[in-house]
Design a protein that fits this description.
alpha+beta; 3 domains; 66% helix
Length: 395
Amino acid sequence: MRTFTRQVLVELIAVFLAALVAFTAIVLLFVVVREMVRLGLPPTAVLHLVPYILPDSLKISLPVTLLLATTTVYSRMSGSNEVVAIKALGISPMAILWPSFVVGCLLSLLTVWLNDVAVPWGRSGAQRVIVDAVEEIAYGMLRTERYYSSSSPQFSINVKRVDGRKLIQPTVTIGPLGRLPGLTIDAQEAELRVDREENVLKIWLRNANVEFGGGGVLSFPQFEYEIPLLAASREESLASPSAIPMARLAREAVRHEQSIQRRQEDLAAAAGYQMMSGGFEDLLEPSWQARMAELAGMHTYLCRLKTEPYRRWSAGFSCLCFVWVGAPMAVWLRNRDFLQNFFVCFGVILIVYYPAMIGTIVLAKDGAVPPVTVWAANLMLIPWGGWALRRVLRY
């Protein structure tokens, strides 16, 4: 019996590793091309970006690759009547099935770790690469499209043309930064320079007309402005809960709940003052509606923080759920064509599992359902796998 178990385990690992390399390379290529198109990355930045994108690619490829390896191994064994021979010897099919369940459990824990540690690390590293390449990205887009803007509405440039490093007849729009007002600058020419020691993008302009937020216009023969690299880049900030390690999520949720409580107390005090002073119409002003919308946004962010741990664990254990379905189904179908067996299993997963997973995550992040609901997609696969396993063991 140990010989059967060892043979299945070795074959399963060999097929899995070969398929993982191929499938991860495809996913990695797709992600890299997407980032190149979205950000206009130069080739050197793309090479630096690859190691940081790898964890994100692995968390996508691991469950599907494990399902492919499982259906491949057990389809061959079932199609060659090896399972029938094992039963004839009085050995339970569980002797060849349990190694795949153990591998699925271990890879599920690995996927949870990827979601918790490797993905936030990779995203922060990718952000550094993109931010450091902001100068090359900006010049590349200005040469081709004559327009560049950051991901936030903080910074944008329109130019007539680009001559080497010089931007001819640029119009630079800079949103408010802290206490600094917004600016609109028209100049004869400009140049971008990144100062990595100060972590800023310096904009040097000649013969510039600067229009301040208040409406005043001043002319300068030479004008220089500095903007933080992150605000000038096309990369979003890492404020998303998906970029926070799981060990910090609970503390972040408590801190955010306290912020919501303070904001509610401030709004209640302000509303009480308005009603006592007879200013009921002020509660209908756009400024008050904006404050209420901000409070609603804080509640949504809190729901996202509370949903994130459940999302990571449920997404990680999709590996075990896929094996739970794929292994007995491949044996029960008795078809040597592993691709047909794979698509039978993956087709149902694609139609049922992924929509249910995405739907429950969206609802949980909006606060419409409890966070634990994100496990619903995984639980839907358990009866299917249990039914197939029962038939394999009985017949």
